[in-house]
Amino acid sequence: MLERICELEGDGSYLVEAITLATDSQNPVDLRELKAIDQRQMDLAISIEILGCAYRAEREGRTVATNEFTSAVVAESVLAIWRERPHQARLRRREHLGAFCDEIFSPGLNGSQAVIAALLLGKAGTRRKRRPRNAPVFLRYGSRFKGMLMGGYLLSLMEISLDRLDHRNFQEARDLVERESEN
Rounded to whole angstroms, what are the CA distances from 11 to 8, 14, 15? Predict the structure, then answer.
């Protein structure tokens, strides 16, 4: 068995990612697992935990609990709702933690914004599943677009901009999502 030991100065996390990508050809690393060690992912997990929820940046073999959000769900939700790119959220999932990662998890994204986006997309998806029989075919694909509109509506109801959605008004936002999602 061949082993490589590297001593790094300081944090060295930037180099860990580079070495892993460059040398791991036998056991390819999923981008989701690689991004789990990213400082933004760790900060987001703490921010979500403070809200009484959980964040899973890595894949695990168990089912997701009610108050738990995966990096894949958060990435898709944030891209669709707060970054206003529902088409790419739906059709380019494989790139969420790659090409779109910096945009999705940009500085300023906090746990409240991530959880509210996931809840909004969940509500929009539920509405999509309960559409009337005679609904147009395109409605099957509109839940991310609806979620984006719901996010804008939520912010206007709260009379705030996205950067002001945080832990201080999280419960109010969550209550509005529950109460107003049908509207």
Answer: 7, 8, 9
